[in-house]
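Q: What structure does this chain adopt?
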Amino acid sequence: MFSILPLPGHAELRASYFSCHTDNQDDEVFTFSFNLITIDANGVEATYSVNATCSLPLPWSPREVSCEENYMEVSMRSDVSCLSGTTDAWTAALAKAHSSATSTWQVLFQQKGQQLIPMSFSEARELGYVFHLTQGRLVFRSPYTPRSVMGSVSMINGSVVVVHPILFSRQRWVVMMVDWVVACITNEGMYDGAGLVWQTPTLLSPLVSGLSGLESSKISMGVDGQLLDEPITAERGYSLDISDTTVQISIPFNAAGGYRKSFVMGNMYHEFYVVHLYYEQIFLDDCGVETRLRLHRPMNTPLLIQHLTIINQTVLEDRLFTVYLGNLYYDVDLVAVTLNGHNFTILDATKSGLVITKVPQPNSNLHAYILRLPFEDAAVHKLYSPEGFFSSRWTSTTRWSSCLTRSLTTTWPQLWLSSMMSVIPPVFKGVCNEKSISFQIAHKPFDYLWEVGVGPYILTTNLAAKRGYIMQNDSKSLTLEVPLFSVGYSYKDINLKQFYGSFEIHSRLPKTLEVKSSSAKACLFQTTEVIVCSTEGVVTVVTDVTLAIPGAEPNRTFLLDSTCRPQETDGTRVLFSFGLHTCGTRVQVDHQHVTYENEINVEHKSQSVNAPVKTRDTASVITVRCVYPLSDLYKLFAYWRFDADSPGVGTILTRVPVTTFPPTTLTTTRRPLTSTTTSNTGLSPGREMPGINPRAKYIKVFSWQMNQPKGTT
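A:
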């Protein structure tokens, strides 16, 4: 039996011990010699001599039956002479032998109750039958299909093939007869969805024709011509179920001992699983004569559509597509890849940036491939949605190769792979400094999909320079340092010791201005001098009154409304917090701005001969001023209501007398001023303002002012 297995370079030859061209030494040592001829890719032949010598692993049974893939063979010890009974077929054959026997051996085939015409051994050989006599055994071999209708092969129950020859010869007045029968089951098994299943009758009665009391004494199984013990069969998941009528063998799909074959049909990946089953059974008849049945039967599943194991192992931070292709058998090799219309051999793909790694799958004869491709590779298609998310579709047309021999290559179907990735908007890391907040981010390739903003404004070098931000931007990172009290800060929990200042920057979509991520940082700062003009119309100010009047007592300060006193004081500073419509605050409106102003006054003691007298020194004041853009106010006034889009710009002005008290000549000086805002008003702290009108409960605003478009002047 010769076959080429679908394994690279694997051919199999099984030869009977009694085959032609086999040297037989006393039916115990057998030597088989043959020539192996190979043809290379250039058509050049090479011949190799192969010899194999085998000794019997076990002594011969009195009767041996072999059921090969393409022939049946029975050998019998020549001294077996047990007769347990006669049959009608034997009686009829005996009569025929007596009437026609000659000194040469003849063979008479019986089939379906009929006796065919006796023929010589040479005539039988022309039909494919072989009779052979060794030193101690008689051998008969038959094909499953004879070369002529005169052959005697018959089928029982559709799966049992039977050949029943009777040999006879006359030696003087003695007729010698040998009754032979060989039967083999041709059942190829079936696939039940989980594995291969093979069945055979427990008693193959035609094996011992005319004998009664036939019993099965032992049944074993294996693969590739080798019997397996029970622990190995259990480990592999094989099962052997024996009943009074049937023996059933089950082998799971892809179990060890078999192999898978891959190929393409209809542009689909198909496989089938093959097992070379070896079955052995021992029978005993009434005389105790042993018959050993050996059966070789290849079994395979039908064509099964298989799906590759495809796992997208891409990690966004690695900026690398990683795809796992698994569940590939040994006969599948990756030979070419097509990426978005670009064809690559494996060598070219490696040079272009695609990394392909072949990895074995643990505890199996399968393997897998891992394909890696950088996002920045030229073969990657980059698509962007209106929302700004990044998506890259990696389309891979993968061509596989299945090598059965060195000269045969099979093209595998196209395999389409894609990965849809979302890119995260930039997120800044904030750090608190003594007098500033710093933000930093490392650039990524797709940061340009978003714009960075402060409030409603885009962060540019011009905006940073105008507001006093310190910005450094290069190819690797962006760093922004925002000094305290710069435009864009917000404040809370202000007291004389400390306060919280926070600053926020965000990433947004350029087209819709939708904010996708925000980076806000709140830091605790020490309080020195602060003025905050909030969007709710509340002024909070901390200032050093001793700079206006050395030696002034902070707890003796008040606003234009003398009932408005500071919330906190220490040795030099005061903390006031008041509404813009309270404490005598004055308001003035021009075409672009609304300005609110109040004063911090300090009480002094007048010196006299009799006793000190408290008086208000109106020359010793600190002016507190908040300026709001007119276009930012939703409602200018609705009787004590205030509503603004953004904080105002605050200013602290001090007037200091140049002579001793009481002053006669005044000089106005300005010291470093502070302001807070989250809008780009274009105002500078401490700018010259028109005259301040007296306080009022309402302001008349002309219609042309109210109808000004928001954001215009």
